[in-house]
Amino acid sequence: MADLLPHPLHQRLHQRLHQRLHQRLRRLPLRTRLVVGFAVVMALVLAAGGAFIFWRVDYALDRRVNSDLRAASAQLLPLVQPDGSLPGDEASDGAAISQHQVLDASGRVLTSGAAVGSAPLLPSRVVQAALAGPVYFDVGSPLPVNDRPLRLYAVPLDGSSGSAAVLVVATSRAASDEALRELLAQLALVGLATLVLTTVVGDRLAVAALRPVERYRTQALAVAAGELDVRLDVPAGRDDEVTRLGHTLNDMLTALDAAMTRERRFVQDASHELRTPLTLLRTRVELARRRPRTREELEAVLAELDVDLTELQALAQQLLHLSVTPAPLSTSTDLAAVVDDVATLSDSGADGLPPTWETTIEDDARLSLVLVGERALRQVLFNLLGNAARHGGPHVQMHLAAVGPGVVALSVSDDGAGMPEQFLPTALLRFARAAEARDRPGSGLGLSVVDQLVSASGGELRLCSRGAHHRAVERFAVPCVHHEQGTVVTVLLPLAACS
Question: Whole-prediction pTM value?
């Protein structure tokens, strides 16, 4: 029927059937696909092995039968007369004589043995082939069963002085065919048993191999249900595809927990810290609407609202910076160039920065390439200078120098009253503010932002005030060098070539 369809339609039908079969196979469970694939491959291997064994045994049996036929032919050839007859006293002696036929060139039987009868055994086409040389020919086959299976061997005769042209010698194949059928049955039985056994073993192996995956899936459902700090149970001491998948998923869960923690913390910080400035804004607006006000009074209220909104915007921006973990960079930034550029803002009256400060860049710190983005470096500098402006003394210094192999130090110092020693370990926490600084502008997020940016780049942040020292993390064996009065905030960064 398919041949009657137009070729494009037949091709589309074939593609659609192939796609449906592929989709159905893809819907099967992975275990089923593995077992079915294993069973199909095993069946092909067993069939190929059985076919090879059957062919070798059949070849050996045929070789033995052919040898017997050639021996019988050699025995009879000298006895055949030109007219096809055999000597009278030999006519009934021997198995070879009883299973022969002598044919003329047309295939007609001239004489025959008692065991094969006078009916021609060879078709005419085989007789014509036998006139040119010896030919083997089978009557019947092992399957289906034949009542009289024979193997014939036909050789040409010298019929120049008579009508005899072809001598045919026959032998029964019953024994060899029976042996082949028995072999085929045994191969089928053994092959089927082997296929069933290997399929069962393959199924058990697939279950054992996929058991950790099912366990991972169950634990992943717990994570999807909202459970925290859940980790996959990965066997120790093993290194295969499944255990590597488990380690990768655990790393992903760790990163996911960290992201969720940052998100919750951001929401909590935002809801906590934005409540006060928003309440203050609402209060100012309500007070301004209680009675009619002059233009000058409204402008004063708007100026106060603008200050509040500016602080609110800065607070929201700092919260956003804290909620995002900086991604590692593959390109470097010239730290000295950024410091030089920020130094031009000194004595410019820039909002939030000290009125003036001194900047020193040592020669060994020139071309200090670090794996930190320029925007992040500017934010670090603005936050440090802004802290010095709000909480330090009038004399502010910014200093950049190389302090070790592959390490550069950026410090901002002031000559103010400094921070209490007991406050230094908590100064980097979010919204942490010393008691004497609560009446000053700020939200207590500046140093937290700096610490996050510096840590993400592999650096180290140090606080030194009133002779006391505090490290956020200890990464570099570089001593602190500063005055015993005032506050020094130092950022140590690895150079890009050594990071």
Answer: 0.49
Q: Return the amino acid letter for 196.
A: V
The tens digit of pLDDT for each residue in 49-71 reads 999 999 999 999 999 999 989 99
Helix and strand numbers (H, E) in the chain are 10, 13
166-172 and 333-334 beta bridge pairing: unpaired
22-53 burial code (b ≥16 CB/10 A, e <16) = eeeeeeeeebeebbeebbeebbeebeeebeee
pLDDT at 267 over 80: no
Q: What is the pLDDT of residues 170-183, one digit of tens each?
A: 998 888 889 999 99
Largest CA distance in the chain: 155
Superfamily of domain 329-498: Histidine kinase-like ATPase, C-terminal domain (3.30.565.10)
In whole angstroms, give the CA distance from residue 103 to residue 167: 6
Locate the domains of the chain by residue range.
241-322, 329-498
Burial class (CB in 10 A: 0-12, 13-18, 19+), 105: middle
**Do residues 247 and 254 touch, judged by C-beta distance below 8 A?**
no
